[in-house]
Each structure stands twice: as structure tokens, then as C-alpha cells.
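Notes from the 1:1 (GR / supervisor)

We went over the backlog. Supervisor wanted to see one worked example end to end before approving the batch request, so GR pasted a single chain during the call. The sequence is below; no edits were made to it. Supervisor asked that the structure be written out right there so they could see what the output format looks like.
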Amino acid sequence: MQSMGSPNRYFDNAALAFPRSEGVEEGMARYLAAGASYGRASHGRALDAARMVEEARGLLSALLGVSRPQRISFALNATVAINTVLRGFPYRAWRVLISPMEHNAVTRTLAGEGVGYDLLPALPSGLIDLGRLAGRDLSGYDLVVVNGASNVNGVVQPLGALRGVLGEAIPLMVDASQVVGHSPLAVEEWGIDFLAFSGHKGLASTTGAGCLYQSGRVALRPLVYGGTGSGRSADDMPEVLPDAFEAGTHNMLGIAALLGALRRPLDRAHGREDFARLLAGLRAMPGLRVYHGHGVEGGRTGHDLPPEPIELLSLVPTGMEVSDLAYRLYAEHGIELRSGLHCASLAHRHLGTYPEGTVRLSLSPAHTAEELAYLLGAVRSVVS
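Structure output shown during the call:
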């Protein structure tokens, strides 16, 4: 286990950020010392708790490009937020379009609800092929679901351009779990109707505080019913946002941590050129396949320049199992990462890495150039 002062050998930030923002501990300590519940009383501690929650909501709205913070509700994590949409959506055709890079949180929920899906046309990297999508008849679909950034190869989807191709009629849901904190978002400008994410990845907070944005264009059925501190009916949930989707006691400690992270985001300790050097070094190694972003396919998306991928990539060695590569990197060099399917079986099928999966490396902004160089040397040592 690493201490905060030791070199950072942790490269599993797509699962959970490390290091976390210094604001996380500060926010949690502040809440534990004086915190109360949210929206349940009018005494001083309760009002302070309400101010904390609403400050977090306001900072998130600015980060996402949302003009009305009340359209953001808190959830346990992105999976719960995704379930809220897919289980509460007013289906008519009971069929949706999804990208081939979706997380199991999407595909398993659709299967559990009996909703069928077809795949959006995509390039081998998983980047949506807008040229092939243009002009397609969407009348038989209720919803389009897109993973904004892949948790397998880091490819980032052109969400604004996608809305332009889809037109305004069909609702658009985005799983932004790997986008928020890593890649710019303009939620309202891009016509996104639902956006789900967690605070413990790109925002470098801790677990327990996810979020769901709703444009209000489509009314969902709440996933959880219960007390909200508002509304007079004993039987009916309030219709106003965010109350309708925040039943029960909030995870105040998780929101306090998230607020701290939003106030004090991680400083970048390496530049894009350092990541490019790592990527080039990995791609130059014999016996190693590297999966990252859109590669040389950018000109065939229907638009000139697809978005820049996030700092996440996958490796497949040709001379050993992916699990062996992961084990040896940890055992011999202390490198902490993840191998397997990364809860994204559909993405691995599309990339051709199913069923073995890949070894995934996902960076933190706090990694230094020296730590990236150490990682490169460690991989070279094992695969050679």
C-alpha cells in the first residue's frame, strides 16, 4: 500500500481516483465536526448542511454547463443514476440505440427491464461513425445512450456533433463517468437530456456521491420513493426537481467530500507531451498491442477532428496472459492497475479483446513525468 508521500505507482484511476483531492479530507472533517441532515429542519446546523449541498450542486452545474442547478440530483453513484433513467423512462417502442462501448450498468439494466437495443455505427475504436448515422430513421427508438468516454480505451465521443446528426426529437443519455473532470462538457449546448456520473473518478473525491442531470424534456418515474422533506401528500412524491429524485437521507459525508474536491481540484503534475511519450513508448514495444482513442481513424467520423481521448489505455501482450502481465507489474514493480473486462463486455467484444480482456492503465493528473517514465520502464521490463 502506498503512502501519500511515496512515488505514485497507482494507475487504476478509472475505477477510483488516487490520490484524492486534499479538499476531500477537509470537507469530510468539517461535516463530521458540525454536520446535520439536509432539507429536514430549519435550525442552524441543518441550514449549514443545506448550504453545503447546494454549493456542491452549483459548482457541478458550472462544471457541466448547466444553467439550473436544481436539475442535478445526487445519487449513490453513476450506476444508480443510470438505473434511474433506464428503469424510469416512459418507453413506447421498448427499443434504444446504444454505442458499442457501453458499461454493463447500461446493458444489464436494459436487459433487466426487457428493453431491446441496437448498436450505433462505429469505427473499430468504438468512435461513433456520424457519417453512417446521418439520415438513419430513428422513429423506432425511444432513446439514444452513449458512453461519453470509454473506460477501456479512452475514446471520447463527439457529443455535440452527435446531437446535430440525431436531430432534436430523440432523447439523448450520456454516461459521463470517465468524462467529468477529464474532458470538457457543455451539457445544455449539446442537447443532452440525461447525464450520469460519479464523484470518485475524474473529480478525485471518494465513493458515495454520484449525480444525475435531467433536462426536464422527458419525465422519469423515480427509482426510489420516500421522504424528501417537501410535499404534503403521504402517497405521492413531489414533482419538483431535485426533490423527486432525492428520497431518503443524503450521503452527506460523500457530498461533503465531493464539495471539497470541487473546491480544490488536483493540480496537473505532467503535461500532454509526457503522456504522448508514454503512449509512443508502449506502441513501440514488440509483443504488445495498445488500445487508445481513435488512432488514425479521425478523418472517417463524418467530422474533421474527433475529441481528444482521455489518459486511459489498454494493453494486450502477445506472449502471456493479460492477468500475468498485471500480476508481474505489481509483484515486480509495484504497479497497481486492473486486468479483465472492466465491467464493459460489450466494449471488449467490439474491440476484439473478449473474453480475455486487457490490462488497463488510467492516469491521475497528479502523476509526474518521472512516474510515467517508471511505468514505461516497468512494462518494458516485463514484456521483453
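Supervisor's comment: Residues 30 and 344 are 37 Å apart (CA to CA).
Batch request approved.
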